[in-house]
Amino acid sequence: MLLSEYYKESKYSHNGQNYEILEEGKNQRSYFKVKCVVCEEISTVTAASILSGRKPCLCSKKAATTPARKLKKILDAIEGKPLTLMSMEVSGAFDPLSVKCNLCGKVWESNYNALAYNRISCCADCGHAEKLTEEVVLNRVLERLDDSVQLVSFRYAKLGYSKDSRTFLSCKKCEYKWDTSVASVLKGCGCPRCAKYGFQKDIAATLYILSIVSDGVLIGYKYGITSDLRRRIIQHNKLCRPVGVEFSLYQSWEYEVGQDALNHERVLKDNFTMSFTKESLPSGFTETILTDELEELLEIQNKQYEDYKLWH
Fold it and tell me: Alpha carbon of 278 to those of 274, 285, 288, 291: distances in Å?
């Protein structure tokens, strides 16, 4: 059912605030574009949230990303940098914003995401940032290396972090030797022979629930299992940041053996269907639920975890 058929005037109300539907999605789980008639803020929301009235107005106290707060976040991020924000009206995450370099006077276009999350630190023309000399690159490599990895030799290329800048490494545990790029080391590089990939069923694991927030509004939950919870949350946030979605830990359960966590996750999968698509949630769209399904999921998980603890 299209929302225009359900709401003849193409509006819905939540806590006394009216919203005009600008663009309709294909179904109840796809995203719709709506506009608040009070503050005229435009945002996206699923049809299921609209029908249940869970979407608060962006000008309400629950809002975390009003234009004023977005502007303050940008100004805080560029404070101390030789940059001046020329555009004072901030709307969408990728809408163009003019930025001026205080050193050379160049003006160029950026966006909210790049400025607010410290992806812009200097002007590309005058390059006032620290020069990537051989000494600077080598020091950054040494600072980033894991304690179990030793640098054998280093080859520097003129472009600093290009694929031609290589590091030759040795593992202190298994004595395996390999070479990789400087960029790979700076991202976090360990021994490929000692590394364990994917979910490990024979070691300790965590079953987790993550809150899914879009434009400051809770839109659902993601559940799953992992051997490294911190890394999993970082991975989801990195891949979903371009669409304005953020994950945070809601609740977790610890297991001594990963196989037990896997068995409990299968029970949850049998009871709940996927609530998001890859288009709306580039990472973690599987094993997702809507907000009104949380209570049922917690009831099932708490019960099976209580039974698990009785035997362990």
Answer: 11, 6, 11, 18
Identify the three-state secondary structure at position 312.
Answer: coil
**CATH label of the domain that carries residue 9:** 2.30.30
CA 285/CA 280 separation, integer angstroms: 8
Average pLDDT score, the chain = 77
Average pLDDT over residues 156-165: 65
CA 33 and chain centroid, separation:
21
Specify the pLDDT at position 62: 42
Report for 102-111, 123-132, 282-291, 295-304: range of highest mean pLDDT: 295-304
List of residues 6+ apart from 72 with CB closer than 8 A? none
Q: What angle do CA 263, 265, 268 make, to 5 degrees?
A: 120
Please name the helix (run of DSSP H) or strand (run of DSSP E) that holds residue 5, with its range, or none: helix 3-6
> Which CATH number covers residue 140?
2.20.25
In 3D space, the residue among 64, 70, 76, 61 whose CA is nearest the CA of residue 219 turns out to be 64
Question: Order of strands across the sheet with 288-289?
Answer: 245-255, 205-214, 217-226, 288-289
> Which is more confident, 63 or 310?
310
> What pLDDT is attached to residue 190?
76
Query: What is the total count of domains within the chain?
Result: 4
Contact assessment for residue 161 and residue 132, using Cβ atoms and an 8 Å cutoff:
yes
214 and 241 in a single domain? The answer is: yes
Instruction: Name the DSSP class of 118.
Output: T
pLDDT reported for residue 111: 79
DSSP characters for 23-45? E--SSTTSEEEEEETTT--EEEE
